[in-house]
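Tutorial, part two.
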Amino acid sequence: MAAEAELCPQCGGAIHFAENQKDLVCPYCGTTIVNKAWQPPAPAGNTLMPGDDEAHQIVRALVTLHLKLASQGVVAPAQIVSAQPTDYVIHTPKGDGRVVSFVLEVHPDGGPPFSAEARALVSLPSLAKYQPGATEYVRYNPRDPKEIELDHRP
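Running the prediction step on this input gives:
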């Protein structure tokens, strides 16, 4: 069943989202348009159920922090002091990930090192990379270093 055409907010051209399509590029002007009616697929398995409020809160908090630090955060290297996987396995379109709690020693440029705790969603194939002693990059709020996340750089 074909969906009704929508109009591109940039050029006014008619666009058509396929069923479950998250976004598309307008064929007339090249603008990327997000489908406001898109809903993420239900997670596979039973590790993150719709009623699992704590897991949803963790994921929402990680996303909120990421959005805040993307514009205000400072990047610095950090050594992993400890990494404790939680019981939360999250299913995403890019693959399964586990929420991991980290204790880090952050080494900011031009400042003294400091300790911090962070949670991150780590893809299951990458878990072995995040071991004590490993150096990773973090992004933190310089006004409140407790606001910190792993900066998943390739």
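The chain has two domains: 1-39, 53-150. In part three we will examine how such features are distributed along the chain.
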